[in-house]
Amino acid sequence: MKLEDNTTHHDNPRLIHINDPKKTCDNSQFSGNEIRTSKYTLLNFLPKNLFIQFHRVAYLYFLAIAALNQLPPLAVFGRTVSLFPLLFVLTVTAVKDGYEDWRRHRSDRNENNREALVLQSDEFRPKRWKMIQAGEVLKISSDEAIPCDMVLLGTSDPSGIAYLQTMNLDGESNLKTRYARQETNKLFLEGTMISGIITCEQPNRNIYEFMANMELNGHCLPLSQSNIILRGCQLKNTEWVVGVVVYAGQDTKAMLNSAMSPSKRSRLETYMNRETFWLSVFLLIMCLVVGLGMGLWLNRHKSQLDTLPYYRKVYFQKGKDGKKYKYYGIPMETFFSFLSSIIVFQIMIPISLYITMELVRLGQSYFMIGDRHMYDSVSNSRFQCRSLNINEDLGQIRYILSDKTGTLTENKMEFKKASIWGKSYGDSKAGGSREIDAGVEEAMVSVRKWKLKSEITPDPELIKLSYKDLHGEERIAAYDFFLTLAACNTVIPILTGSPSISGSSLRDGHTSIEYQGESPDEQALVAAASTYGYTLFERTSGHIVIDANGDKLRLDVLGLHEFDSVRKRMSVVIRFPNGSVKVLVKGADTSMFSILKKDLPCDDRMRHVTQVHLNDYSSEGLRTLVVAARGLNGELLEEWQQMYEDACTSLVDRVVKLRQAAALIECNLTLLGATAIEDRLQEGVPEAIESLRQAGIKVWVLTGDKQETAISIGLSCRLLTADMHQIVINGNSEHECRKLLCDAKAKYHVNSASCFDDITNLKRKTELNFLEMASQKKSSNMSPQITGEEDRPTFGPLALIIDGNSLLFNLATLCMVVLCCRVAPLQKAGIVDMIKSRTDDLTLAIGDGANDVSMIQMADVGVGICGQEGRQAVMASDFAMGQFRFLKRLLLVHGHWNYQRLGYLILYNFYRNAVFVLMLFWYILCTAFSTTSALTDWSSVFYSVIYTSVPTVVVGILDKDLSHKTLLKYPKLYEAGHRQESYNMSLFWITMVDTLWQSLVLFYVPLFTYRESTIDIWSMGSLWTIAVVILVNVHLAMDIQRWVFVTHAAIWGSIVVTYGCMMVLDSIPVFPNYGTIYHLVKSPVYWITILLITVIGLLPRFIFKVCHQIFWPSDIQIAREAEILRKRRPFFGSNADQDSS
Amino acid sequence: MSSDDGSSKKVSKKPRYSRFTQQELPACKPILTPALVIGILMCLGIIFIPIGLLALSASENVVEVVDRYDDVCIPSTDQKVGFIKDPATNKTCIRTFTIPKKMRKPVYVYYQLDNFYQNHRRYVKSRSDRQLWNPKAEYSTSLCDPEGQTGDGKPIVPCGLIAWSLFNDTYSLSKNDAALQINKKDIAWRSDRTHKFSPNVYPKNFQNGTLIGGGKLDENIPLSQQEDLMVWMRTSALPTFRKLYGKIETDLEANEKITVTIQNNYNTYSFNGKKKLVISTATWIGGKNDFIGKMYMAVGGTSIVLGVIFSLLYVFKPRPLGDPSYLSWNKNPALD
Predict the structure, then answer these.
(1) What is the DSSP string of A1010-1051?
(2) pTM of the model
(3) Highest averaged pLDDT of the listed ranges A367-381, A397-411, A498-512, B265-279
(4) Known catalytic residue at A403
(5) Which of A607, A702, B60, B286 is the most core-located residue (most Cβ within 10 A)?
(6) DSSP state, B196?
(7) Which residues span the membrane (chain A) (predicted)?
(8) Which residues is A417 bridged to in the sheet?
(9) Does the annotation place A704 within a ligand binding site?
(10) How close B117 gets to chain A, by Cα (Å)?
């Protein structure tokens, strides 16, 4: 897929002639800017909607059954009756689809009819959005929405900057900067018309990448992501921009991205399909019995068939004498009888269950979204259900894989400490600012004119250092250090409240700066630099301006190597006003120490000291970055410049080429120091993690941080506790890791024999022990809880990871908690994949950033946190919420409820349909296998659609075994989901046995009651209809745990509705069953038979339930009793008090 | 794409509080306390046993005389079908029996057929209800084949196999040589007489084919008065069934000798069906059937026994309800 895309880029680039839409669109068919998100038009609605609907297997099954019934020899039901279920679901779905589509039509129309200024015959004139074509030049004013994807040609700003809000596209609220190329911008400001050709990629959905070239007056200018503005964004803080349309309408990235993510299927549904297979087997057996029975019966009565009054296969009228009537020979009759029994028994396969489940999940989501305890007031966001298929999986999660930054922590960075030139600052405890002496304070004045949004308390010593006159190695290092912090980033300063930004008015009053950027770390660093007197206040694509202790320093940016996860560093090449060129680098320590200068012994010392500081910082849970710099001289600079230029204009492999260019200069660096940033834990995280751990969920934290940082964070969020044994595996080679793993296993009694089976078996046993003993809380000093810390070598051979997995996994599954440090985004997904491939347990991945997307999509359940790092994670997730702590409620409360409800719902639906089908089956055995149904056709069809459907949905949505208070108080109740208590094979078989019993009762009680009597077939059918409806509803009523008025209405209402329907059906004289019900209700036998059926049918179940509760009470049962009795007791108690007083 | 513009941002999205959305509606949460379980079982016993007794006694009070005559009212064992099919043979047959107990009026006379699948799909569907009510719909015979129309295309009214196979044995009863009047009025359902079988539809072309299935109908009497047909066309649910033949409006005393003159016309010999004549009284429970009574007694008895067992269980091996020490993680002591 990817490969194909690439090739098309080369072979078939998209050519845009600027301001020449005709030429652009003549050569190739580019789509116009009219968008259509709607699926249908009035004309094609019916066929297309039907076509889409019949993609579902369930509907095809309905269709096949209905089609079978249309064959004359098989016409079991009347024509209309047999089509009813199909038509019913089709109509309901079609109406829903139609309504949604109508709304889409309306919004499309609004979008398409908006107007924008388009350059038409040398003048900007308004034009409707839908008329805009690729190649046209548009002018957008401030606060206007962008109608299509455009390459910027010019902006109102002389430096060519434009600010964009990309909220609609990616949900990030900060402003993004986009640049017009200086060359075109100049031309525009001069008022020259531009004509040129843009060569760009074919439309694709990647909103973070764009590669193109512009041919302008013979020059080839590279265009990148920073030169394009996308549909759906809004122009901000910029008076106007002019751009040329490159992608319009359906080709825009916004439209290409609006596709839904692939849906996941829940675990319960997978199990359900397994049981559906069994039901199909039952169905087949029953149909075979009927078919064979028919064959044998016909064979036995072969000679009589011609004249048998109730069969009569031959005409005796003149003319047709001897002609067969609806008789096709015994083998065919057997086959037909087989087919028609499939029609009669069709609801054995609970197809309607899929529709019921969808409805139930919809209702469950409604309650999850509406839960006030999962509303985050900080981000003003409710809980979101983005996927409607996996609600019940939330009740069975065994592994939580969590990102750290932004998920466990707030991702609000605060600059805490720094190590500069081998000296650590920021260690002094609170109140540092009080000690600032007069001189410093004076110097501070100049800084003060920049008002920052977030203020930090500076370290006085460091302040002194930063204001000292420029001499001494230490001072120069500090200068470079802060310069790097201020310059080496992609943060955009936004100035507000100042009269002017221009340099001359620098000293006028206070200006408040807001730093906007994609990375909170960078924002924190820039803010810190500003506090210490190095304020970044202007940034264009070509230069940055820094106010360094009051001096305005204009630095030309020659090149910027952005952060990527392979290099794990970022660098910027700047030219100082005096002409010297420096490369400033910041990055993760592992990636930095290897590229430092190693010639001098003092470098070594520095490195060592900094390393010690870094370890200190990270053990306090701070995020660290190493800062380094290097001067560039002529030759190297030239070489790099060429490579960089080349890489930037390249359409192919730009990333790789840029990386090569970066490698050229990112070496032999001089270490300047290190920074430490604090990222505070989110509210309620320790409590949530503790509860989740008690619930038997294994929490794995995957972080890019270093081992020490990870451990300290782990301790502070109670992931790790003092009584845990920590296993640290941090070998640098395959062998070392293997050895550590084996040692750890030996130590904790895991047999590391080569035989994998042994390990697995043992693992199971020991795991159980561990889990049980874990509950006795530190009683033994040899607590067997294990904490595994795994440190994967970041650049280790792939073989290690794969090879080590089997060993690693055995150990890791034993551990309650696993911390994985130094994990790259793809490795996160790899870990999820490893768990998924090795166990049947469900995994949940939670994260907030773009780097968690792959993990979220890979896991069984993906949860996104709407945080600081944008919304990619949310877009990819199944559920999204504002805070990590909601996870506790989501899993322990809603997950538990959803699982209990859906598990019961499935079993009940199996039972409900099977008991009905079996009842029909027994009767067919009494009708010479002729697939007669005593029930009227309509009642047979209404049974699953009207008579019994509503209560299942209502109970599936509203039933609740335990209150949320109890569930949160005893997190261990969640383990019911792990043990699959609500739905498993044995429950299925028990239900089926119960079903068999109830169907026999249903059939035989009326049979014996009315044996040798005048009962007619419709009275019998009427009795059976009402009996089965009452039976299944009372069965449901017996299992309901929480009766609210809706439940009452649904259950008893269903019975009333059934009576109503039957009365209507029996009041139509043209039906043979006319008047039946009126006749029946007068007979007392009818009523006592119904009572008898209900009681005999349900008595065994009742007894079984009571015995189960006496002898093997489940945890849920006990907790439920405790909860309810606790509520009653005070009530009784107060009564008693009143009596006594 | 939903737009989150500035105005909506200020509006709190906090879900509105209602007891419904927070799933905190006042609810009844039943739990199976020992008292409840024992109460339910005892109640079942207390309700079911009296009903059972009532039903049993009602069934006991029914006096029923059953006489199988198909095997006796036929001369030779080999030519049964030939005999019954031959219109010329004399099929009169006389049976006598004594009344065992006093039978209070009304005494019902039924015929009972056996092994006759009136519930066979081919049979049940072979009728036209439109034709029975609407004189203009006499041609709607599509479902009635092979007894829909005559050879020359005339509609048969009433059409279909059910009507065609109308039962046509007749009984005349006499007590001590005095004829007992059998009232054949009002033996069909009222709804059938008034809304299903029309007073304006008369039998036509009925039983004219070469194969005679059963009884003939008087073409001068409208369907609304053909009550035997109505009874017959309420097809039975089971292959063994009774149908009402008529009512005797006088009491029959014990030990009275009843003589029945049977016209044994109906052919059940071709499919080995039995024919029985049943004379029976009726109570609220219907005919003689002690199944309901016995089942009610059994269920009631079982419930009480179970109730006692559970009571004993709760006395000797009580489990305190809602005791957290029974929770699985509190129950299992440390293994080492």
Answers:
(1) TTTS--BHHHHHHHHHHHHHHHHHHHHHHH-S-B-HHHHHHH
(2) 0.79
(3) B265-279
(4) yes
(5) A702
(6) I
(7) 50-68, 277-298, 335-355, 914-935, 941-962, 983-1005, 1017-1036, 1043-1065, 1085-1104
(8) A676
(9) yes
(10) 6
